[in-house]
Design goal:
single chain; alpha/beta; seven-stranded mixed sheet; three-stranded antiparallel sheet; 12 helices
Length: 386
Amino acid sequence: MQIPPEYHDREQSYLKHRVLREYLVLWGRKLGSLARRGPVTLWYVDCFAGPWQSQDEELGDTSIHIGLSALEEAGRIWRENGQEVALRAIFVEKDDKAFARLEQYLTKREGAVETTAFHGEFGSHVSSIADMLGDDPAFVFVDPTGFKGVAMDYIRPLLVKRMREVLVNVMFNHINRFKDDSRAFLREQMKAFFGLSEEALEKGLSETELLRTYRTNLKSNCDVSFAADLAVPHPTKRRTWFRLVIGGKHPEVLRVFREVEARVIGGEAASIRTGARDRKTEQETGQMSLLSEQAAPSQDAWYAEANEADRSACIDDLISDLPATGARRYRALWPAVLEERHVTEGELAHAVVAAANAGRLLIEPDKRRRRRARDDDLLSLPGDGA
């Protein structure tokens, strides 16, 4: 898979933008269906818009362009069918030079999205943004350069209404450097970022524990019912660069998010990271790598390891949520698994049937030759008399 040259040495940003685009298009198509019942307005809010490291004069390698294009694509299908869907976007940027470039781009750009730009700190414009959104559906993208000025208190007012979702870039590569720093101002910034009230962020937390803390507090502080995260890897090393956290009020956000993760981080990342390693080898040695992007595996090894481990563990998670007696619907069980595990709902549904065939679960109704569990299925433990 070839990527635009503007993303060379920024492959992690390309993967981040691919996740944003794929998820936002699906979000817009789903929420745009409300137009069948009457006019609807869909909002995209980019809270730290930039542009920052753009190498493209047309800003094609920025969340500004990615978000607008994805929103237009999502709304196009409904508009072509005669449905009334209004598309609007809000961008916030504090840096003077970046804001001037943002305004210039938005002024010149032609498209279906009506745009508004706010100059200044994100936190200072939250009230105005919330007023503009009203009761409309909105997708909020929080993509800072660090963790200062990204207090969860600022995100909360934009998510309290129904039909709101948020995608937060937890800048793990940056946060990991300072998470245990004892300086008071950093401890306070971390506390605000992670949505902690009185206690400071606990020291010594692992990557998994850090993200679980963030997701848990996002749910409790920002009135979202479901939250999950994925890891965007370093282009050439086996470590995390970003962690993207999704939050929403309906379990469908988890199903879509894990599908996008499998497609982008599992699939597309394989050739992208192979290409990045090849370019690095050529730069360092002056010789072409024996491998090539065409020879890249179909699934990125870094994701494949996590996915394989979680597919093995997901049934244990599900079984632990079953009562000793009685049964629960599959629909009530799979969201908790997808919040923690890097598996798709389809993979889990097939694993449930395999577990039933192995005698670890009972499924009602018991339909032979089924391949996957369904939302209405009742699951129980063997021998409970249910």
